Structure prediction request, 155 residues.
Amino acid sequence: MQPADTPIEEGLKLCIKTDQVPVDKGRYQRLVGRLVYLSHTRSDLTYALSIVIQFMHNPGEQHMNAVTRILKYLKHAPGKGIIFTKNTDYQNVNAYTDADWAGAMDDRRSTSGYFTFVGGNLVTWKSKKRNVVACSSAEAEFKGMALGICEALWL
Prediction:
């Protein structure tokens, strides 16, 4: 198995196709479940897992290929993970947000997310597929910023 530099291909859009080649559903679910457990300490896998987890009910060959790429990435980057440094500057809170307008191929819904740092250490992160279709990229970005700001204010 050749190692990969990133957990998911850039610009990869997965969807459910009627003519997809089916794969072993139980194996797919076990692999993704184990990767979700691992993602608690490996935040670099979070986005890729949020993509492949959407197809747990009906995985196809392209979905299994995406999971295999995550495994290849893990083989290439075994020492990566969350690193906490000693820091006494707890007043410094930074939040970063992003959104993908109409990025889901099946239902055209947007995905927004954020991550926050306290004193230079990553403490929270979240990615959420919106419940409704955004009318514009500005609306998708605004909703993502609102989530990130709420989290930063809470911290």
Observations:
- The chain has a mean pLDDT of 85.
- The chain is about 35% helix and 15% strand.
- The radius of gyration is 17 Å.
- Residues 1-82 form one domain.
